[in-house]
Amino acid sequence: MHISEGILTAPVLGTGAALAVAGTAVGLRRMDYDRIARAGIMAAAFFIASLVHVPIGPTNIHLILNGLVGLLLGWAAFPAILTALLLQAVMFQYGGLTTLGVNTVIMALPAVVVHLLCAPFIRRSNGSRVIAAFAAGLVGILLSGLLMALSLMFVSEGFFKIVPVIIASQVPLMIIEGIITAAVITFILKVRPEML
């Protein structure tokens, strides 16, 4: 879901950069000393998972794990995802430095939304935990796809034609991310429930 350089207009890039800076500032302010290591681990997981790209039609899909990152980090997802995207842009030319802000918002904002919506259900001690974790993975990808499509639609009406293809190509990924997120959260609840 990286948007490459040279596609977006200056207003879209500027808005994305401003939102990424604001989200990162909030995330850094809310990150306490005990969660720094967790943020580093989740940034590394995000970095590695999103390196494997599978081409589907005019787009590529790859694991993002932003639902899982959001559940475990909350607002700290912004600095974690920003760091991973910066390393990917510098080391592998995924995305780019000019699109770093937009790409961060596309992946980190859904992580925060998922945290706000799903984390309260995971903290409860009933059967809704697995469903909430699955929903977190699924909704994280859905919102990222919608934000990416929205970013492209502000550039040109020509991109409007491929928006349904972008969203449709993400459906298998939504299900896979939901399953992975549910499995990881179930494991964490058994091993270290205090992380949640």
Total number of helical segments? 8
Spatial order of the strands in the main sheet? 1-2
The helix-strand sequence is HHEEHHHHHH
Mean pLDDT: 87
The dominant shape is: globular
User: What's the number of structural domains?
Assistant: 1
How would you describe the overall organization of this protein?
The protein is mostly helical. The protein has a single domain (10-195), classed as Arp2/3 complex 21 kDa subunit ARPC3, CATH 1.10.1760.20. It is built from 8 helices and 2 strands; from the N terminus they run ααββαααααα. The protein has a two-stranded antiparallel sheet with strand order 1-2. Strand 1 (54-56) and strand 2 form a beta hairpin. Helix 1 (10-30) crosses helix 5 (100-123). The longest helix has 26 residues, at 128-153. The mean pLDDT is 87.
Give structural attributes.
single chain, about 200 residues, Arp2/3 complex 21 kDa subunit ARPC3, 8 helices
Helix and strand arrangement:
Elements: H1 10-30, H2 36-49, E1 54-56, E2 59-61, H3 66-73, H4 77-92, H5 100-123, H6 128-153, H7 163-169, H8 171-191
Antiparallel strand pairs: 1-2
